[in-house]
Write a structure and sequence with these properties.
The complex is a heterodimer.
Chain A: H1 5-16, H2 33-43, H3 56-68, H4 71-74, H5 78-105, H6 109-121, H7 129-141, H8 147-155, H9 158-163, H10 177-187, H11 195-204, E1 208-210, E2 216-218, E3 228-230, E4 233-235, H12 239-248, H13 250-264, H14 271-283, H15 288-296, H16 314-324, E5 327-329, H17 333-342, H18 364-378, H19 391-394, H20 404-412, E6 421-423, H21 426-430, H22 440-448, H23 457-462, H24 469-481
Antiparallel strand pairs in A: 1-2, 3-4, 5-6
Helix pairs in contact in A: 1-2, 5-7, 5-16, 6-7, 10-11, 11-12, 13-14, 14-15, 22-24
Chain B: H1 2-20, H2 23-26, E1 40-46, E2 56-58, H3 62-67, E3 79-80, E4 85-87, H4 92-99, E5 103-110, H5 118-127, H6 139-147, E6 157-159, E7 176-177, H7 181-188, H8 191-198, H9 208-232, H10 243-256, E8 263-268, H11 277-301, E9 308-314, E10 334-339, E11 347-348, E12 367-368, H12 369-380, H13 385-389
Parallel strand pairs in B: 1-8, 1-9, 5-11, 5-12, 6-7, 6-8
Antiparallel strand pairs in B: 2-4, 3-4, 5-10, 9-10
Helix pairs in contact in B: 7-9, 9-10, 10-11
Classes of the chains: A mainly alpha, B alpha/beta.
Chain lengths: ~500, ~400
C-alpha cells in the first residue's frame, strides 16, 4: 500500500527537519515529497549567521587578557573567576535557547537538523561560551557541506582540542585522547585500526592547540616532526595529513553513513542500502548534501517500515510540539529543565560518544514525563520534578549557606513552576475549518501521528472538551500528543 | 472482604500483644511480619567527588598535614578509629558502626587511567566500563537484564529520585525512579493513562511503539505495586527530615514489605568542594550521618540489618594538596564504606593510600571498584558477576 502524500511529507519533515509546522499543514497533501525536499534544500542554502550570545563582560575580559597576556587569567581573584564561570554558564544557556528557538522557527530546517545530528556526532562538553559558539558555528556552516572540511575544522576547534586534552599533547609527552576519539568516534569506528595507529597519529597532532579567543594555534616547538606510520602509510605527517589518511579509508564513509542511516532512516541498519549510500558518499568525496539527497529522494525512505519507526529525542519532541503549536513561554527556563529531566541537554552530551538515542531515551520516569508534557504546556500544572545536579555544569560553584535545592533551582529554573505557555491556536484551529465535526479526531491524529493510533477515538473524545468545536480541537490535540504514539516519528 | 478484615485483626492484635510482652522475650517472639533473608543492596552515591582524605583521615601522616595546612583535620578533632586513622568529625554514627563491627572501609579504590571530569568518571562508575570504553548500560541495569527474565515489574531496582541514573539502565530492563511512591502513584493513576492502557491490546510486537506500551504498562503496574508495598508496613521510626532521611525511610518501609526489590539507589551531593570545603562537607556529612544512623537503628530494631548492605561511592576523590580557595580539586582514588550486619571483614580492611607515592599529586589506586561490584553481585546478590561486568574480577573478602 503506498502512502499518501501527506504522510510522506510529514515523514520527510520529521526526519529532514523538526516536524511539520502549522503553516505547512495545508501544503502537505498538495505537493509531492520530491517538491517538498527541493523546497527544504532551497530554504537551507544560505550560510547561517554566527550565533553570538557571549556577554559583554566576558568579551571585555577577553580583550583585557589579550593585552596583558595569558598569565593574567590565573591571577583573577576567586570572586572574578566565579563571575566568569557564571557568565560562561549563562552564555551556554542562552546559546541553547537561541538554537532551540531556531530549530522551532527557522525555515532552514534541513540545515538545523543536520547540525543537530553533527552536534551529537562531534559531541563536546566545554564550559566556555566562546568555544561552544565557535564549534556550533562550524557545525551549522558545514552541516550540508563537505564532511572532510567539517572534520578538519572541528579538529582545529578550541572546544574539541580542549575537551580531548590536546593542549597536553606535546612532543615527547603525547596525549592520545584526541587521536583515539578522532578514529573511534569521528571517522572509522572501533576495530578498524590498531593501538599503534593511535600512538602514531597522536604524534602528528602534537602542537595543535588554541588560544583564549578560541583561535587555532600551531605550536611549532611542541610538534613532533619525525616520521610516523598510520594505517600502513609512512611519512612526516602533520595532523591535517593524518585526517586526510582517515578520509581516504572507505571505512570512514561507511561508518558515517551507517550513523546517518540509523539517525535519519531506521535504527535497524540495512546493510545493502548503507553500502550503496556509503559507496556514493565516498565517491562524491564526502559531500553531505549528496548523501542526504540519496536518502530523502529514494523510494525506500518512504517505505512503511521506515515511517514512525524512530523514537523522538527529547529535543525533537519539544521542538516538534512548538512547531505545530506556536507558543510564547513565560518561563523559558522550563525548556532547560525539561531537557535535563528528559535526558538531552544541548551542549552537555553524556560523553564524547554523544547521546545513544533510540530506546535509551525511554524509561519509566522519562516516558511518563514525556506523556505529561503536552498537558503541562497547556495547563498551569506545576512540573514537580527535580533534575539531577550536574557537577560539570556547576563547576563546584558552592554557596555554603544555601541548600542544594535552591542552588539547582536558581541555575536551571524552578522545578515547581508551571511552564506558562501562551499557545497561539488560531492558525492551527483554522486548518480544520472544512472538517466535519465527527471526523475531527481522525483528522487531528493524521496530522500529528506517524504511526497508526492505537488509542481509540472514543477515549480521545471522552477526555476532550466537547463544549464546542474549537475547544474540542484544542483538547483532542493535547490528548493525542499525550500518547505513546506521539513519541514516534 | 471478610478475609481482609481478618488479616487486619491479626496484624492489629499482634501489634498490641507485642507491647505487653516483656522486653527480654521480644527477641524470641518469632516471625516479624515479613520473612527475613531477602538480601538487598542500598547504594549511596556521593555526587561531585567526595574528598576521601578528609573522610578517612591519616592522622599521623605529615605529608597529609603539609599538603593541607588549612584543610587538614587535626588528630584531636578526628574521631579516632585506630592510632593512625580517624574519621571526619561529623561522622559520629559511622564511628559507632565501626566500633560495633557493622562497617568495613575499603581504601584507595579507583580504576586505571582515571578521568577527572565528573560526568565521564561517573559514567565509568555507572557502566563499569574501562576508561576508554563508552557503554550505554549500567551495571545494576545489566544485573536486571540477567536476573529478571519475564519479570512483569521493573521494581527489582529502585532509585529514589525523579530521574533514572545510567547505573540502573539495562539493555532490556530498566529500574524505576521513584522519589515519592505516592506521587508516582498519582501520576500513574491519571484516568487518561489508565484508560489508554486498559483499552490497549497487547500486540507483542517488536516495534518501538510496542516497547513504549510495554514500558507504560510496567510503569503503571509498578507505581501501584510500589505504593501499596510502601504502605504495607510503613516504618514508624524517627528519621531526620532531610532529603536523604526521607529516602532512607521510604527504603526501610519497602524493605519491610514483601516487594521484590534487590537494589535501592540514592544520591547525596554536591561534594564538589573547590572552595570553602569545610562547611560544605560538614553539612553533607551531617545529613548523611544522621540519616544512615536512623536507618541502621530502624533496621536493627526490625531484625533486618543482616539482610541489608549499604555502600557508598563517589566518582573520584580529590587531590592530596588543598588549593588556594580552601578547597580541593578533582583527584583520583577514594574510599568506600560498606555497612551491614552481615559483614565478614570489618573495620579497615586494607591500607590507607600511600601519600609518599603519588602520580603528579594524585593518589595511585590499588583496588579497582569493579572488584567491589563483583563481590557484591556475586556474594551478596548471588548473581553472575562475570556476565554482568563482562569480565572476571577477583572477589574481595568483606562478604
Amino acid at each position: 500500500m503506498s502512502l499518501t502524500n501527506q504522510l510522506k511529507n510529514q515523514h520527510l519533515m520529521w526526519r529532514a527537519g523538526f516536524g511539520p509546522a502549522v503553516e505547512q499543514l495545508g501544503d502537505l497533501s498538495e505537493y509531492s515529497s520530491k517538491q517538498f525536499y527541493k523546497a527544504l534544500i532551497k530554504a537551507s542554502e544560505k550560510k547561517p549567521d554566527y550565533i553570538d550570545v557571549a556577554d559583554d563582560y566576558l568579551k571585555g575580559l577577553l580583550m583585557g587578557v589579550e593585552e596583558i597576556g595569558r598569565q593574567q587569567v590565573k591571577d583573577l581573584s576567586a570572586e572574578e573567576r566565579k563571575k566568569r564561570q557564571q557568565k560562561n554558564r549563562d552564555g551556554i544557556r542562552n546559546l541553547n535557547m537561541y538554537w532551540m528557538h531556531n530549530m522551532v522557527n527557522s525555515a532552514a530546517q534541513l540545515r538545523e537538523k543536520m547540525a543537530f545530528f553533527w552536534h551529537g556526532h562531534f559531541a563536546c562538553r566545554n564550559v566556555n561560551i566562546f568555544y561552544q559558539q565557535g564549534l556550533l558555528d562550524v557545525l551549522r556552516r558545514n552541516a550540508l557541506g563537505n564532511f572532510g572540511t567539517m572534520l578538519k575544522e572541528v579538529s582545529k576547534s578550541a572546544a574539541m582540542l580542549n575537551f580531548l586534552n590536546n593542549q597536553q599533547n606535546r612532543k615527547d609527552h603525547p596525549n592520545e585522547n584526541f587521536a583515539r576519539e578522532v578514529m573511534e568516534l569521528f571517522t572509522m569506528g572501533r576495530g578498524n585500526y590498531t593501538e599503534h595507529d593511535i600512538k602514531e597519529a597522536a604524534r602528528a597532532f602534537t602542537g595543535w592547540t588554541a588560544n583564549l579567543k578560541g583561535e587555532f594555534q600551531f605550536r611549532r616547538f611542541q610538534h613532533d616532526y619525525g616520521s610516523k606510520t598510520v594505517l600502513g602509510r609512512t611519512g612526516n605527517f602533520d595532523g591535517e595529513e593524518v585526517l586526510d589518511i582517515l578520509l581516504q579509508q572507505k571505512q570512514t564513509a561507511k561508518y558515517i553513513t551507517q550513523k546517518v542511516y540509523r539517525f535519519f532512516v531506521n535504527e535497524i541498519p540495512d546493510t545493502e542500502k548503507i553500502d550503496w549510500l556509503a559507496d556514493r558518499f565516498y565517491k562524491s568525496n564526502y559531500e553531505i548534501s549528496k548523501l542526504m539527497e540519496d536518502i530523502f529522494t529514494s523510494e525506500w525512505f518512504y517505505e512503511e517500515k521506515n515511517v514512525g519507526a524512530l523514537i523522538k529525542s527529547p529535543v525533537e519532541l519539544m521542538v516538534g510540539i512548538q512547531r505545530m503549536l506556536p507558543m510564547k513561554l513565560e518561563n523559558e527556563e522550563a525548556l532547560m529543565l525539561l531537557q535535563r529531566v528528559l535526558g538531552q541537554l544541548l551542549f552537555y552530551p553524556p560523553n564524547v560518544a554523544g547521546w545513544p538515542g533510540g530506546k535509551n531515551w525511554i524509561d519509566s520516569s522519562s516516558l511518563m514525563m514525556r506523556m505529561r508534557l503536552p498537558r503541562l504546556i497547556n495547563d498551569t500544572d506545576e512540573m514537580n520534578v527535580r533534575p539531577k545536579d550536574d557537577d560539570d555544569t556547576m563547576m563546584g560553584r558552592m554557596d555554603p549557606n544555601e541548600a542544594p535545592k535552591g542552588k539547582a533551582q536558581r541555575m536551571m529554573g524552578r522545578s515547581n513552576k508551571p511552564i506558562l505557555a501562551d499557545i497561539d491556536w488560531k492558525l492551527y484551529v483554522n486548518n480544520f475549518e472544512s472538517v466535519p465535526r465527527e471526523a475531527l479526531g481522525e483528522a487531528i491524529a493524521k496530522n500529528l501521528l506517524q504511526t497508526k493510533m492505537r488509542v481509540s477515538q472514543d477515549i480521545i473524545k471522552q477526555f476532550s472538551d466537547q463544549s464546542g468545536r474549537e475547544n474540542f480541537i484544542k483538547t483532542a490535540t493535547i490528548q493525542i500528543m499525550s500518547t505513546p504514539e506521539y513519541q514516534l516519528c | 472482604m471478610y478475609f481482609k478484615r481478618k488479616e487486619f485483626i491479626q496484624v492489629g492484635s499482634l501489634a498490641t500483644a507485642s507491647l505487653m510482652v516483656p522486653k527480654f522475650l521480644k527477641a524470641f517472639e518469632g516471625a516479624p511480619l515479613v520473612p527475613q533473608g531477602n538480601k538487598v543492596v542500598v547504594i549511596l552515591q556521593l555526587s561531585g567527588g567526595n574528598d576521601g582524605l578528609n573522610t578517612v583521615i591519616p592522622v599521623r601522616n605529615d605529608i597529609y598535614y603539609k599538603a593541607r595546612p588549612r584543610l587538614g583535620i587535626e588528630r584531636t578533632k578526628a574521631l579516632s578509629l585506630t592510632d593512625e586513622v580517624g574519621l571526619h568529625p561529623a561522622l559520629t554514627g559511622f564511628k559507632e558502626l565501626y566500633d560495633d563491627g557493622s562497617m568495613a572501609i575499603l581504601n584507595n579504590v579507583g580504576y586505571p587511567n582515571p578521568d577527572r571530569s565528573h560526568f565521564r568518571s561517573m559514567d565509568i562508575w555507572h557502566t563499569a566500563s574501562q576508561s576508554n570504553e563508552y557503554w550505554n548500560t549500567g551495571w545494576v541495569g545489566r544485573y536486571l537484564d540477567a536476573q529478571c527474565h519475564g519479570c512483569d515489574k521493573p521494581t527489582q531496582a529502585i532509585e529514589l529520585d525523579d530521574v533514572l541514573s545510567l547505573s540502573l539502565k539495562g539493555e532490556n530492563i530498566k529500574g524505576i525512579a521513584v522519589k515519592d511512591p505516592r506521587r508516582l502513584y498519582g501520576t500513574a493513576n491519571e484516568k487518561f493513562f489508565k484508560d489508554v492502557m486498559k483499552n490497549h491490546k497487547d500486540e507483542a510486537g517488536e516495534q518501538p511503539v510496542d516497547y513504549l506500551y510495554k514500558t507504560m504498562a510496567e510503569t503503571l503496574s509498578s507505581a501501584d505495586y510500589i505504593f501499596k508495598q510502601s504502605k504495607m508496613h510503613p516504618t514508624n521510626a524517627e528519621y531526620p527530615k532531610t532529603d536523604l532521611g526521607t529516602s532512607l525511610k521510604t527504603i526501610a518501609s519497602l524493605i519491610y514489605s514483601d516487594i521484590n526489590t534487590k537494589v535501592y539507589y540514592v544520591s547525596l551531593g554536591s561534594f564538589d568542594t573547590h572552595i570553602n570545603q569545610e562547611n560544605q562537607q560538614q553539612r553533607l556529612f551531617t545529613e548523611m550521618n544522621d540519616a544512615v544512623k536512623a536507618f541502621v537503628k530502624d533496621l536493627k530494631g526490625n531484625n533486618r540489618f543482616d539482610d541489608v548492605m549499604l555502600f557508598t561511592f563517589s566518582e573520584f576523590g580529590r587531590r592530596v594538596a588543598q588549593n588556594a580557595s580552601n578547597g580541593t580539586d578533582h583527584g583520583t582514588a577514594n574510599n568506600m564504606f560498606f555497612i551491614s550486619g552481615g559483614l565478614k571483614q570489618k573495620g579497615l580492611i586494607n591500607d590507607l593510600p600511600d601519600l609518599a607515592d603519588l602520580d603528579e599529586g594524585d593518589l595511585k589506586y590499588n583496588v579497582d571498584f569493579k572488584n567491589a561490584y563483583a563481590t557484591v553481585l556475586n556474594k551478596w546478590l548471588k548473581a553472575d558477576d562475570k556476565a554482568i561486568l563482562a569480565k572476571k574480577y577477583d572477589h574481595l573478602d568483606f562478604i
